[in-house]
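We now fix the convention by which a protein and its fold are recorded. The integers have meaning only within a learned vocabulary of local backbone shapes. A complete example follows; check for yourself that the lines match position by position.
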Amino acid sequence: MDQQREDVHTSGIPVVCLSCEARHGGVCGALDPSQLTELSRQSKRRDLDAGTEVFGQGERAPGYANIIRGVVKLSKMLADGRQQIVGLQFAPDFMGRPFSTESAHSVEAATDTQICAFPRSVIERLVEQSPELEHRLHEQALKELDEARDWMLTLGRKTAQEKVASFLHLIATHIDPETSDVSRFDLPLSRADIADYLGLTIETVSRQITKLRKDGVIAVEHNREVHVPDMDRLARYAGMD
């Protein structure tokens, strides 16, 4: 392996990057210490309150970002003003499309979120220098494509109960990459946003959450904190193999 690709505990890696989860699991893991140093010099940590818009649909995105913590929602606006949530992103996902001049979606912090933002010119230069970075970005794009196809199945074929259970399973397994305990989490979306994301009514979402709670599949505290005593059982309710 390249001598520059040193262990995380050795010298050469910027201090701000050492404990960054996005570096370990995200696209930054493809960079060597000198490239990380170049990126860190021009990057900036930003704390976003829930509801903060990062990019607007059709706007020129000034740069890219890694999600450090929190949940980001992607939405599309129709010509008549209707809005549809088309995706969610979690740490350590990469936000933005390299070499794309416009944001195809509205990108908004669904929860209090922290991102590491950097100029587009830096990433595009590093992509040209690092085949491994290009490969990592390609892998993420394919992962998002696979997830979108899976979600098409959820929306098109699953029952209302399976849709809600699938959503809860998605959040449980993605919301906090730093913990091995996926059994307890806060819902990152309101009931209205969950309904929008699943193509259901708010009333149907509430009924299905109540049914899952009565069946003992989940417990709900303070209206948003969810506890899943048995993830395999939740997966069965979600119609997963």
Notes: Residues 105 and 144 are 14 Å apart (CA to CA). DSSP finds nine helices and eleven strands in the chain. The longest helix spans residues 131-157.
